[in-house]
Amino acid sequence: MKINRTKTLSALVLIVMIIIGCGTVDPNGLINQELAFEKLAGDWIYGVNGQITLDGQDVSLNYPDFSISFADGTYTTINGGNLFRATGTWTWVSEVAGSINLDTGEEVTILDLSVTRFKFSFTHSGGGVVAGTSGNYTVSLEK
What we know:
The chain is of the alpha+beta class. Helices cover 20% and strands 37% of the residues. The chain has helices at residues 2-21, 32-40, and strands spanning 42-45, 51-54, 57-58, 67-71, 74-78, 87-92, 99-102, 107-113, 117-124, 135-142. The radius of gyration is 21 Å and the shape is globular. The termini are far apart.
């Protein structure tokens, strides 16, 4: 009876160790998506160095006082023209947390993300002459 109890306890300890050892976890127990979301969450504005470029050309004037705010699975924008919806949803593309999918079907690639800087790029296939022209966009924002 004592041998069975020892074997069961050993097997349980082994299973727990395997479970703890799996996954991408930081010392505080957070996975990549949680770490990235801690930085992403909140309000992002042009600030001092922010801008929106279309195929390398500055088009920030088409989006005066643009801002975007991220919450858990949702976003809101101000002055996003036809480029961004006023409100929408987003999801992580993968566990790596290097890009997100917007509810518009566009995949946003995160180029730089810190607690004070957010730079991302995406290809927009909308239309229009002013705000929302099709092309490759890069957006640099600050908190």
